[in-house]
Structure of Tir chaperone family protein:
Amino acid sequence: MGNLTNCFQLLLKKVGLNANAKDLNKEIISLEIGNFTYHFKEFPKGHLIIYSLLDNESKVSSDTQLNALNENHFSEQLVQPIFSYDQKNEKFILWNRQSIPLITEQTILDQLEAMVSSTEAIQAKLNKNETDEQLSVPPRALHTISG
């Protein structure tokens, strides 16, 4: 079994689900939670990436895109999701990554929970009518980086 399969089985064990190893022997494993699909992939080698594409029901202005990018602040959270935009597909992407050798049942669950929370929050902001309210991103505590 590959790294991806082993990681995904840790997650399934943690949440009390079973899956056939044959079903998990893929380059990308997808999991639907609520209205979103989370894709698991080993990328680059030795790292687990989880990503999700967000729906854009209508064109999103440049201002809204820039405001949404405020979600990409430094954080103490090790698996903080990163928010970006794919111009080719005109979709927002949310992703995070961690080193496979460090993954435990708890860390992979933490990684997925961070994705679910951020995906739901950002999608709700994107769905708001821009004329009613601009994205309001709560300020995050910034930490001083000293060298």
About this structure: Helices lie at 3-15, 21-24, 62-68, 105-127. Residues 3-127 form a domain with the Yope Regulator; Chain: A, fold (CATH 3.30.1460.10). The mean pLDDT is 80.
